[in-house]
Amino acid sequence: MALMHPMNANPNRPVYLKLRDQIAAAIIDGVYREGAMLPSVRALAAEQGANPLTVAKAYQQFQNDGLVEVQRGVGMYVVRGAAERLRTAEREVFLREEWPEIRQRIERLGLSPADLAATS
After folding, report:
1. Can you tell me the distance from the alpha carbon of 18 to that of 48, in angstroms, rounded to the nearest whole number?
2. What is the C-alpha separation between 57 and 61, in angstroms, rounded?
3. Angle, helices 15-28/82-93, rounded to nearest 10 degrees
4. For the chain, how big is the Rg over CA atoms in Å?
5. Helices 52-64 and 41-48, packing angle to 10 deg
6. 55: which of 9, 28, 43, 45 fits an S-S bond (Cβ 3.0–4.6 Å)?
7. Contact between 81 and 67 (Cβ < 8 Å)
8. Distance (Å, rounded) from C-alpha 19 to C-alpha 6?
9. Is 52 exposed, middle or buried (0-12, 13-18, 19+ CB in 10 A)?
10. How far apart are the C-alpha atoms of 59 and 19, rounded to whole Å?
């Protein structure tokens, strides 16, 4: 499964956080559902062309946040409620950090709600 769409496309973000964003998006999108096992560190590193330590650091973020649980010798699994918790957190970040810039650009360009609706 190729991870594709980082939620925060900031090029200055550390690689492990970009990977974390991609995995979070996959959980929210249901690619990795509750109870699903995430790919192993080595498998995801190979797929993404990343260093295994970078993948491990991204996975550690999920573990620290209680969004995955590790079963020693078996794998890492998405916990119940992870998608909704991630969605809520990502909404807050979007509204606080990204939306003000987007809104300002919309206003600067003189776009109306009708203009925006016509693009979808």
Report:
1. 11
2. 7
3. 120
4. 17
5. 120
6. 45
7. no
8. 8
9. middle
10. 9
The predicted-structure confidence for 17-54, as pLDDT tens digits, reads as follows: 999 999 999 999 999 999 999 999 999 999 989 999 99
Q: Quick check: 58 and 16 in contact, CB under 8 A?
A: yes
How would you label 36-47 residue by residue, b for 16+ Cβ within 10 Å and e otherwise? Answer: bebbebeebbee
Outline where the chain has alpha helix (H).
15-28, 41-48, 52-64, 82-93, 99-109, 113-118
For residue 99, which amino acid is it? W
What does the pLDDT average to over 71-90? 95
